[in-house]
User: What shape does this take?
Amino acid sequence: MRLISTVPPGGCGAIDNRKPWIILGPVPDIQRLIDIEDIKQLKARYYRYNDTQDWAAFRDVFTDDVHYETGTQILDGRDQLVTTFAAGLKDGKTAHMAGLPEVTITGPDTATGIWAFRDYVQVAADSEAVVGFRGYGHEHDEYIRTGDGWRIKSVVITRIRVDPFEGGLPLPSPENRVGVG
Assistant: This one.
C-alpha cells in the first residue's frame, strides 16, 4: 500500500508541497489502535463502576461467562461476580488506580491485557477498627468483542503487596464478603 504525504519525515520542519514523500509498505493498522483504545475505555469504566458501586453498569462490562480470580476467591459468571461485589462492598469504599496497560490484540475479536494497579479497599467493619487494605499488583485480562463492543471475559489478579488496615484483612465468607485479591 502507498501513502503519499506532504509532511516531511520526522513530522517537523517546513512542509514543501511541491515535493511529497512516499512511504512504501504497510500503513499502520488503525483498527488495531481503535480496538486498543476501546479496551482501555472499557477497563476505565470497570474501575469507575466498581468504585461508584454502579452495579448495573459494572455488570455490563463483563461477558455472561466471565471468570474472575481475586487470589482468595474464584467467581464464575457475571451474576455471581456482581452479586459478590455488591454484597461485600455494601457499606464499604474502594478507590482504584490503574495504568501502564499492555494490550495485545490476539485475533479479530479477542485480546489480552495486563494492567498495573493499586487499590484501596475498605469493607464494613464489625468494630471501630477499619477492615480493609491498600494493595498493589497486576490484573491479567482476556477480552472478547461482542455485538455490544468489547467485554471482559477473564480477570486474574496477582498481588505484589498488601498493606492491611488496623482492623485486619477482609476474608471471603458465606455472606459473600469480598476478600483480598
Summary: The chain has one domain: 29-164.
